[in-house]
Amino acid sequence: MSRPGRHRFEVPPTAGLPLRLADLAWPRGAADADLGAALAQFIGVEAVQIECSGTAALTVALTALQRLAPERTEVVVPAYTCPLVALAVARCGLQLRLCDLMPEALDLDTGHLARLCHARTLAVMPTHLGGRVVDVTGPQACARAVGAWTIEDAAQALGARTGAGAAAVSVGTRADIGFFSLAAGKGLSIFEGGALLVRDAALREACRAASAKVAPRHIGWELRRSAELLGYALFYRRGGLGLVYGRPLRQALRRGDLVAAAGDDFARPYPLHRPGRWRQAVGVKALARLPDFLAEGNTRAAQRRVRLAGIPGLQVLTDSVAVPGADGTWPVLMVLMPTAAQRDAALQALWGAGLGVSLPFVQSLPDYPQYADVVPSAAPQTLPNARSLASRVLAVSNSPWLEDERFEEILRVLAAR
Ligand SMILES: *Cc1c(COP(=O)(O)O)cnc(C)c1O
C-alpha cells in the first residue's frame, strides 16, 4: 500500500492567503504602502503600528510598558504558546511566568493566573491560538486587580471577532494592547511582519517612541525580507510547496528533529527593524482578498469540524465558551486526541505525508530543552492542562488546497487510532 499523500501536491500546515503576481507591483503613492492604515480599517481601530514581526510588536509593547512601570518585571503567558513569546520577554530583560490552561481549552486558568499576579506583574497575555477566540475579560480582571496591563496575543487570529452584529469587534482590541503576526503562513503575510494595536492614545505614543528606538531602519534586513517575500509569492502556491516546505519537513522528521519539523527552531537573536514600503504595499493589496478568503475558510472549517468531531473520542478545539458571539478564524482545525499515544501514532502516519497535518507547537514551553535559558523550569506534575493539551493536540490544515478526498484520508487515519 502506498503511503498517504505521496506524489501529490504538498498541503501547507496552515491556511495562508496566497499572493498574486499583481500584489508585487511597486506602490504609486503613500496610501498604497500604508499597511497600518489598511489594517486599521480592516480591524476597525483608529491606528495600527506595523512592526517587522509579531515578536517585534510584542518587544515594542513590553519596552513601552517597562518604561512606564520599571518596578514591574514579570510577564504571564500560557504555558503552551509560541517560544518566540519567551524570547521576547527575555530580550526585554523581563521574567516569564507560566500559567496553566483550562482543561481541554485554550483559555488561561484564571484561578492559577490570580495566584501568579502580584505587584511586580507587568503584563498578562491571553492568546488566541490557531484563530480560536479565548476569554480576555477574566485575565484582564486578574491583571487590573494588581495594576498590570493585558496584551492579547492574536498572532494567529487576524480577522477573528467577538460580539454580535454591529457590536462585533476584532480580537486584540479589548485588552490594553493586541498584536497580530504577518509571518509566512499566518493568514495575511508580508513574509515577516507584525501589527500592534494600542487602545489608549498616550500608550500608543509610548509604543511609537519605543519602536523608533528599538526597531530602526536596516537596509540589509529589508532586502533579505523582500527577497524572501518574493520567494513566498512564487512558491506559496498549489504545487510549489513540496520543495520549500515538504522536503525540509521530511528531512527534519527523518532526523527525529520534531522542533525543526514544527518550525519551532527560532533563530536568535530575532531581528528588530522597520518594514519597508514595498512589502507593506504587497500586504495592502493582498488584504483586499482576505475577507473572502477567511469566509471561505470558515465555511470549510464548519463542515470539516463536524466530520472530525464525529470520530469517537476526538474533540475539535472551539472558541471559548466564556466569550459571547465569538467568531474565530480557521487557519487550522486543532484536534484533541484521547491519549498522547494515539496522537503520536496519528502523527507518525500523517506528519510528513503532505496532507497538511502538523503540530501547532511541539510541546509546552518548559519542555523545550533549547529554550531552558528563557523559560522557568516547571516540575513534572505542574501545568497539567497545558501539558496534556500539548501531548494530545494536532493541527489539520484548513488550506483550500486540502481537497475533500485528501481530508477523507486524514479522517480514515484518525479513526483508525
Ligand atoms: C507566531 C506567533 C508569535 C510571533 O509572531 P512572529 O510574527 O512569528 O514573530 C507570537 N505568538 C504566537 C501565539 C504565535 O503563533
From TrEMBL:
Q: Name one GO biological process term.
A: polysaccharide biosynthetic process
Q: Which UniProt keywords apply?
A: Aminotransferase, Pyridoxal phosphate, Transferase
Coiled-coil ranges per UniProt: none
Sequence positions bearing N6-(pyridoxal phosphate)lysine = 186
Which is one GO molecular function term here?
pyridoxal phosphate binding
Query: Which family is this protein grouped under?
Result: Belongs to the DegT/DnrJ/EryC1 family.
UniProt-recorded name of the protein: Nucleotide sugar aminotransferase
